Fold this protein.
Amino acid sequence: MASEKSRNGANHYENVACPFCGILCDDLEIGPSGEGLKVLKNGCVKSVAGFERPLREPSPQVDGKDVSLDEAVAAAARLIKESRLPVFGGLGTDVDGIRAVMALAEKGAGIVDHALSEGQYRNFKVLQSSGWVLTTLTEARNRADLFIVAGADVHELHPRFFERIVCNEASMFSDNPPKRTVVFLGENLDQSAVKGKRIGEVVTIPTKPERIAEILDAMRAMNKGATISGDTIAGLPRATIEDLFARCKGANYGVIIWAPPSLAFPNADLTVQAISEFVKEINLTTRFAGLSLGGNEGATSASAVCSWQSGFPLRVSFVSGAPDYDPERYAANRLLAANECDLLLWLTSFSPDLMPPESDVPTIFIGQPGTKPSRTPKVFIPVGTPGVDHAGTMVRVDNVVSLPLRKLRDSKLPRAADVLEKIEAAL
Ligand code: SF4
């Protein structure tokens, strides 16, 4: 199918949705540049790297030798058929891609897990056990007057988050909304994008991410009227935490932001739980919500589709013929490290850098043309990028909207969904 022309013609597109991180900005302007694309407006370092990646259309390969797509599909189907336990991992794809993975995993009696699940499970454990009060990007952008960034280098993960959600000069309800306070709770967090006339105060509270839960638990106790002894809380002067609590109590709409990938330490789900419990309790006297970021590499789409179709958010096995859920046993990293699986199908259609963990397990690699796996995969099938080489749909990190992605250039690279459907048909 030819690429869709914008109203400006000549492959010049406005209001393009960007699939290269979880917040799916939908205001980019993209134009042609030589053989490729150029981000003309509203880009960032990640979107420029993604949209401006040169088009390469290598052949599929089996054992490192060029073959036709049909031959590669047949070889992949043979490997899945012969496998005792295939794992379907990576899963950097759009909604259609993950739907096709689910169908293939069911027919091939395998296990599905996303490359970024380890982080996502810090959230899922809390959602499944005690629940939370979350807001959306739109609600935060239009209503919040206090943002607390808890341990996440948001600017690195989502380079336009502050520009779009925190520093916006007007809101849906006012052309001149009140100024905002932004508190950074953590170490070495990039604050450079928090600027402009909307920002009133920027407060830095340096703390290790492992100690954030102590701060939230102390504020929870303060909220209940308890007396906390000692001069310090989580290694910080007590007055610092009392000041933060006073800011929370005084906010009209406070938002605590975290990103599961940034909480990379043991039992970090307890930090998410401490944030969530504080938010629930302070809501009795003022409006407060959590906002979890992350969701890069299609992680939000993968967990959403897996939940719709199986009832569980990833780490699902179809070995018995019915979906079976176990967040520990069916973790792809663990299965590969323990040699409990004998085949890995790895899917990465956004980034050439999303690599599987090192293992000796034979691999079917369905990925970006520029990927350089450390070992030659048994089968390699290059695929296009959703939102660049073909149209698609992705679920935004706040889980409330799915955004349409557009085909921006003509390419011979197939959709991952089509490749996976062909493999399923050949099983
Ligand atoms: S912040 Fe994320 S979604 Fe927005 S333009 Fe950059 S990579 Fe794309």
In short: The radius of gyration is 23 Å.
